[in-house]
């Protein structure tokens, strides 16, 4: 039987340190006795006192207790819940400095992991810095000791919900209504049986998915419907698993966002994945289409196509677009959306792009261009097939600099492409999340 590791006792006395750099996840980095320490709330160049929160073999972690000498880039966080709430972790860093850090994170990853350097570094893409987040899952908990219901994100440390009254990064239709949700749920019979609320904000409406562990009483149901009417929400209930989500109010509902530059309307459901920052998405898609350098005669492969966020705009500029996505529901929605936009030059395949792709009909063709927008794990498996696809130009939209760098290594040093350019897109301001776009050419 394995021996249980004894929990290490942490020093309680604050330790003084000078911060050397910022880690990819937004923590200050220092070294004590030649061991790396990652300190939450610290910025490069600062002298701080910190308290250890964990000790490991490879590194230690801590949190700022006192800032002795502040960085010129330190600013007062806009949100009073910052530092406790885990929704964002860089509000104390000037917005321009956040961009520089993210750009450098991408470039460092390309250099040290991918062994490549872009011929051009694109100007960072920026947009709304507050009220930008259009999709979120909010926890709900009735705290008897406080005599209140909490609604919001979890705290940075531990599994408790942050005690918050509003959220500066959530879309105002939700972020400014946190207290209204708390008041409503506290007055419900089922306030102990509502673990979460999922929100999705389109150009036309805001949808709520209410997860409830027990059937709602007639009184609670009426409260939610009246609340939805008062705030112009689309209301869904989820009594069990994801497949049980169903519309409650109004009788019919539609969510969409538009790409006005391409005369397209993308339909989506409240559970679907879509880009949370619409101001960035409306810049990102035209930029990706521009980088593909389409003339109207090309056959384009769109990998990890989702709802058709890129597929539909590309179809307006290309001869044919083939979209491939691993989620059957998303593929069906993409087909439906193409028809709704009177777009006839797209086709879609459902395929696990991280599994065995042998025999896939779309892999037996040639393409002029490829666009890919993979998850954080990247596109390693499908890139192994790129050598036979014949694409002269590839646009890669990434949500993780490490996997972008790894895949860039394969594209450049195995498949013979050149990295023409790369740059970051500030999809998640005030967080350490790095979204980027890169273009490769053979």
Which class do the helix and strand fractions yield? alpha/beta
* Overall radius of gyration: 24 Å
Number of domains: 3
Q: Indicate the low-confidence ranges by residue numbers.
A: none
Q: Walk across the major sheet and give the strand order.
A: 7-21-22-20-19-16-17-18
Residues in β-strands, percent = 25-35%
For the record, give the distance between the C-alpha atoms at the N and C termini, rounded to a whole number: 56 Å
How confident is the prediction overall: mean pLDDT? Answer: 94
Q: Write out the CATH superfamily name of the largest domain.
A: Vaccinia Virus protein VP39
Number of strands: 22
Helix content: 10-25%
What summary fits the major beta sheet?
Answer: 8 strands, mixed
Structural description of this entry:
- With 442 residues, this protein is an alpha/beta fold.
- The protein contains nine helices and 22 strands.
- The protein folds into three domains: 15-74, Nucleic acid-binding proteins (OB fold (Dihydrolipoamide Acetyltransferase, E2P), Beta Barrel); 99-128 and 256-265 and 276-441, Rossmann fold (3-Layer(aba) Sandwich), CATH 3.40.50.150; 135-201 and 205-253, OB fold (Dihydrolipoamide Acetyltransferase, E2P) (Beta Barrel), CATH 2.40.50.1070.
- Strands 7-21-22-20-19-16-17-18 form an eight-stranded mixed β-sheet, sandwiched between helices.
- Helix 1 packs parallel to helix 9 (401-413).
- The longest helix has 18 residues, at 95-112.
- It is globular and about 65 Å long.
- The model has no long low-confidence stretch (mean pLDDT 94).
